[in-house]
Write a structure and sequence with these properties.
Elements (H helix, E strand, L loop, with lengths): L1 H65 L2 H11 L6 H14 L3 H10 L5 H17 L3 H14 L4 H14 L2 H13 L5 H17 L4 H10 L2 H4 L2 H13 L7 H10 L6 H4 L7 H14 L4 H13 L3 H14 L3 H13 L3 H15 L30
Helix pairs in contact: 1-2, 1-3, 2-3, 3-4, 3-5, 5-6, 5-7, 6-7, 7-8, 8-9, 9-12, 15-16, 16-17, 16-18, 17-18, 18-19
């Protein structure tokens, strides 16, 4: 009996469920339709706002690309009110404001950008650093970029901007440390890397405060840099400036032996207290290989003048000008002639030096006083002072 009773209850419940289910489904569908109808105006309005925001975003980005920063900022302001992609919109708006030199507004936009995850925060800081760099605030951009570099050591733009900051601030040692990463990232090639190493070496030498420090800095340079003619020139110029021209003779001579660069003869013509004869004889040897080098003739003229070889000094200086007129050549000849009392010709030389400084051609020197004797008469220099 008990089992029959339970069976009847189960049948009754099944019949009841079958009867109620359609009604329940109908009620659920009705409620869903009502809710959809209730929310439809709000959804439609939201979609329309998003569509308008996308239109404004595209307009703003296009204007930003064209450099129309005012239009770009206005459009991006309108687009930033809708949900989604707020980081990109505010970053673009910041760049538009920065393009108008409105730093306060640019910073406000950066503050509004979404930084809830690490990538968004990284992009905001990168944009801030890029704007500071473009505005010449390298000191402000450097710590930001250094922080970004610690997080993303291979990021090309971070490397490029940080290298620029170091270069502009004259911080060459940290710049050198960036070079391997920049080369791996393809930012600089071998030639550019060599140029940066050269600039670093030049800057190190230029910072030397006395002759001993300069000598130590020179010896600390890599051998490749000691063979670089621009670095050698910097060392020589700095040694002369610090009152130690005697330190330049062997450095310049070794460099010219490896590779002839006649510009190095300019500091070679600035001897120390006791090495003028040595430099003079060396220049005479070089003259056999480079008889038409105007810088070599000018250097010989200057060295001869220091030894009071007035006739030979004059011949070489004029020969230098015959090969190629230069400001230094006219100035040196003018000083020599002034010392010898030939004031009219000296003034003509000084006027020509001034004309060349102004980009004008020099005028012929007056009379026959500035002509050389036949070349064979000048083949060898004597070591005795002339009257």
């Amino acid at each position: 009996m008990k089992s029959v009773f339970l069976f009847l209850i189960a049948i009754a419940l099944a019949l009841f469920a079958a009867a109620v289910a359609p009604v329940f489904n109908a009620v659920w569908v009705l409620v869903w339709v009502i809710m959809r109808l209730w929310r439809m105006p709000a959804d439609t309005a939201r979609k329309m706002r998003e569509q308008r925001a996308l239109v404004q975003l595209e307009k703003g980005l296009l204007a930003l690309t064209e450099g129309d920063f005012i239009t770009a900022e206005r459009a991006l302001q309108k687009s930033a009110g809708s949900h989604g992609r707020t980081t990109a919109r505010y970053l673009a708006a910041a760049e538009a404001a920065d393009g108008q030199d409105a730093g306060d507004r640019a910073e406000w936009y950066l503050g509004q950008a979404d930084t809830r995850n690490r990538k968004q925060k990284f992009l905001v800081e990168l944009t801030r650093a890029r704007m500071l760099t473009s505005n010449g605030d390298f000191g402000g951009a450097k710590p930001i970029l250094e922080g970004l570099h610690k997080r993303r050591r291979k990021h090309p733009q971070v490397l490029e901007l940080l290298a620029r900051c170091y270069r502009e601030l004259g911080e060459w040692e940290p710049l050198l440390k960036l070079l391997p990463g920049m080369q791996k990232a393809g930012i600089v090639d071998e030639q550019k890397a060599a140029e940066l190493k050269e600039q670093t070496a030049v800057a190190d030498l230029q910072r030397s405060k006395d002759a001993n420090e300069l000598q130590a800095d020179w010896r600390a340079l890599p051998k490749a840099m000691q063979r670089n003619s621009e670095v050698v020139m910097t060392f020589a110029d700095q040694a002369i400036r610090l009152g130690a021209p005697e330190k330049t003779e062997d450095v310049i001579r070794s460099s010219l032996k490896r590779e002839w660069n006649s510009k190095l003869l300019i500091p070679y013509g600035e001897p120390g207290a006791d090495d003028t004869p040595k430099r003079l004889k060396q220049c005479e040897r070089w003259l056999q290989s480079y008889p038409d080098d105007h810088w070599l003739h000018l250097t010989l003229g200057r060295l001869c003048a220091r030894e009071e070889l007035w006739g030979k000094a004059r011949q070489h200086m004029i020969r230098s000008l015959e090969i190629e007129p230069t400001v230094a050549g006219y100035d040196s000849l003018g000083q020599l002639l002034e010392r010898k009392g030939e004031l009219e010709l000296a003034m003509a030389c000084f006027r020509n030096a001034l004309r060349m400084n102004q980009g004008k051609d020099p005028l012929p020197l007056p009379g026959d006083q500035a002509k050389l004797a036949p070349p064979e008469e000048n083949a060898q220099l004597t070591s005795e002072p002339e009257d």
